[in-house]
């Protein structure tokens, strides 16, 4: 899975912006995607996995700065490998609950200040929280929700959830808005939404002029409550 879209920001906002080094434990599909994106953004990334084949593969693909084969349930191995010195560690062992929980516990007891962990279920997430995980992500759940939205509301392209009730969304300008100016639409009064930007021919215009006349097929980025967003004719 990729992590470059607007919806992925809910994951990346959990990472500390002033940190230049990250460790990712678990190099399955999700872990590889996290490594790849952080690496491409210019961060130093240490990849860790028990499976030597996964470690060799991610090194050969040049998706990390360094990679190690070790058992993250062994606190001594984590300490000797320097994992406790990292400011942020992402634990993506989502399908192995016991190993995931023990790894998070080890990291927190070892003094890692910020641990992000992937959970495969609500119970898994509660266990991770109980042992000290600072942020829990549910990629399968989030992808399922995104798929359902894309099937039922194809005009809504991306969503960044600010919290459970409010979001920033990217939507295709609907036919009902075609030819109308931003002032004509008065999105704040009619829908309770604020327009942040419009995009035409691949170029975004931030805080567009009220006299800008929208065209069907353009994109617009709005912010507001989920209830208000759901009222948009897209």
UniProtKB/TrEMBL annotation:
GO terms for molecular function: monoatomic cation transmembrane transporter activity. InterPro entries: NAD(P)-bd_dom_sf, RCK_C, RCK_C_sf, RCK_N, Trk_Ktr_HKT_K-transport. Residues 19-137 form the RCK N-terminal domain. Residues 155-234 form the RCK C-terminal domain. PROSITE patterns: RCK_C, RCK_N. GO terms for biological process: potassium ion transport. PANTHER family: KTR SYSTEM POTASSIUM UPTAKE PROTEIN C, POTASSIUM CHANNEL PROTEIN 2-RELATED-RELATED. This is TrkA family potassium uptake protein. It comes from Leptolyngbya sp. NK1-12.
